[in-house]
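Purpose: get a first structural picture of the assembly so the mutagenesis plan has something to point at.
Setup: two entries, given in the order below. No constraints added.
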Amino acid sequence: MNLAKLLTRTALVAVPLCLSSAPSMAETRGYVIGWFSTATYNDFHANCPQDKNGGGLKLKYRNLMEIGYSEAEAKSIVDKSVVNLGDDINKRINTRARVNGKPANVANYPEAVADPNIETVSGRYAFGFNLGGKNASNKFEDPDSHDKIDNQLWRAVGCTESFRATPPEQPYPEELSWATLVDSAPGWSIMVSGDNLDKDGPVTITLDRLLQHVERDANGKVMWYATYVVDPSPRSHNVFKGKIEDGWMTIDEGSNLFMLAEHPFYLDIGLRNAHMRLRNEADGRLTGYWGGYTDWQKFAYMYTSRPANGADYIGLYHSLKKMADADPDPKTGQNREISATFRMEGMPAYLASLDGKIVATPVRDKQPSTVAAK
Amino acid sequence: MKTLNRVTLKRALAVGISLAGIAAGYQVFAADEAKPAATEQPTSLRISPSQYRQSITDIFGSSIAITGRFEPETRDEGLMAVGARTANVSDSGLERYDDLARGIALQVVDERHRATLISCKPANAKAADEACARKFITETGRLLYRRPLKEDEIQNQIKVAGDSADKVHDFYAGLSTSLSTMLVSPNFLFRYKVVEADPAHAGQKRMDSLTKAHQLSFLLWNAGPDDKLIEAAVKGELQNKAGLQRQVDRMVSSPRLEAGVRAFFSDMLTFSDFEVMSKDPAFFPRYTLKVKDESQEQTLRTIVDHVVKRQGDYRDLFTTRNTFLTRSLAALYDVPLVETTDNGQPMHWQPYTYGENDPRAGILAQASFVALHSPAGRTSPTGRGKALREAILCQMVPPPPGNVDFKFVQDTTNPVYKTTRDRLTAHRSEAMCAGCHKITDPIGLALENFDSSGGFRTTENGVQIDTTGDLSGVKFDGPIGLSKAIHDDPATVACVAKRAFAFGAGRSPTTNSDDWKQIERGFKDSNYNFVTLLRQIALSDMFYAVPTQTVAAK
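Result (structure tokens, whole complex):
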């Protein structure tokens, strides 16, 4: 399913739901999303035994060899360069694609250069959900649930050096984007409603975009207990029925999720057949995973649109394309979606509707606010 | 003090600033080197950073940026405004004032401002122009020096402007040089108490009209007199009751009164201590630098709204449930505050009223008090109690002995003494500590629901916090109980009256005088209306009492 279809479907579903805003249940907790990234499972040696991709340095060698230098020449050029390879060489690397016989920017035309066949994840584990993928060889094992799960996005990107991150570290390009845009891009909220959110039972999870960007605290992290107004627009309004069972919050299958982001890395997040697995942390945060099928080209665009992050964006493009595992194009057969999982953290917050009514309150008395303790 | 102005002048000259006309009009009579008695009239007062800023804003407008650091202030009798009477200008301080002056002067004459701030145009912008320089210097100098300039002062400044303009072929550069010399002049940086013979009482002295004018304007507006007040002073109108009353009524009803009230309470509540206060972000992540600034503004807005706009009872400042918040402050206090402005817009201040059952009320429950008087990582009921005694009730708390043992107080993770009350109880078991802690701790412990940053809490290290206490025999429980006790304590109103007087006069009042008793009575009769108190002080004879050591008009 392409993005336009997903958008339309989400909007149509969301409009009647947004009229009632938060469900009237015994308790509604509010969170602002203060951490969001591709879900990484950082066991690099098990994931990528060939250690083939390397980082920015190896990418420079490969790029130089692709425009005609020998390996020895490439190493010599890199060794002599101080910061970058120089305007002339960079231009040749960047415009090595050929379109109608003319040089073209590789980031704009990744199909016009050969697939460098970067290494993809061959390990056993990845975070995610069983989205119903039929290819058993594609399946990972989720380290928490131990379910066989679909997460081909991780397979495609997980051997890239900048994805060797363990939370709270984020993959470098996503962290960079988050750190620079968090002070201006409207935030995202989660409302969790239920009769007793400390016990098992049915819940309703509502995702929205906010009218304000998140507030930072004295450590540069997201401030707790701030108040945000929920954007009344239906476009990023998502309501999911779900349950708490053994401390894990999940949503019923078959829903779609769409969130606008105004973020250079994530322009938006669209997930078909969305899944969630969340839990309340002892300190009051809500943490967990969102998964589903997403548009692989959109994810690839995040790299090709901002190539200066040390990742082999052409390699990532081709890997994502190859690993895509759903929604085949009826004409070409190329899958248009890829199974994916993202990790998130919600920080306790007050959420309000545009008319000033408080629709969700934070978990109380969790954040340290007393004397230093050993 | 003895050599203050001469030294200042010499050093100013040493850094190449022409101050030729500055000292010409006055002869400084030296005050004693020793700290003067609390009620002793000062002969001069150095203007504070906030008075400097307010004066520049009043004279040149708010678009003139004042960047740089000021000479440190000293607190005396609970106020920086009283400490100003012994304030000097150090070598580095003069350099700071010079930097500030040059920065301001350049802005005033720049192309963006000159059309509005300079009321004449030179015949040739590339040369000196005596007529235009005279006009600017006369008009501006009058406001800066808080009196009309004497002809020799004007001549000196015209020469400074002219020499500089000729040298660089720029009239405005010359004017800038002249302005910057006036801005580092003692006549701007210091307020002098000038006396004259009292025609109504042979052989006695009285404060001259222009001194009365700036004493009045710094009390009510925290800045020098405006043109109308100088005019009234020049005409001698401030020497008669009716004329003085006309000006006081005009000034009290001016929007500029808010600046005076803000400055007074910033001083009384020791907000200057915010400059050296910090919180450990590991434990108090919501206490950001923005929150630090906003917490002061919260209190000042609460005060201005209550005592100026609503003309409410001063005592109710300690019990009012009305305040103002931003979203950041609301997060610190863990209360919701809805703001529907677009993303990226500055946060707005919004009125906020705590609910009837909320355990928070009054300015003592605000971070500007409870956070200011707490160390970085823990609360200090002793510090809070001391601050309350000294700043709000005008009661002295003796300093701790040099060999005091803080082992119990600072051990915040002691498994036996889990709460601050437990630790202080153990600390007080040492006889040398017990005496003073009896004065401070019973009131400070009532504020233990506020952590070091001002956030609300009910437990400490998992133990329920006991907030019982007493003030002068009045027992209470928690911050609301304390705020009521402060509200009802006669020392609360007596203190603010004394401080307000001292803020304007630079000295404490003589409280056994009839004049003072009348002021106190008037304050009470007005239901403790703070603006009425200011008005009474401004109209009282004792506010303009002649210093025993004075600067005499030449």
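The radius of gyration of chain B is 26 Å.
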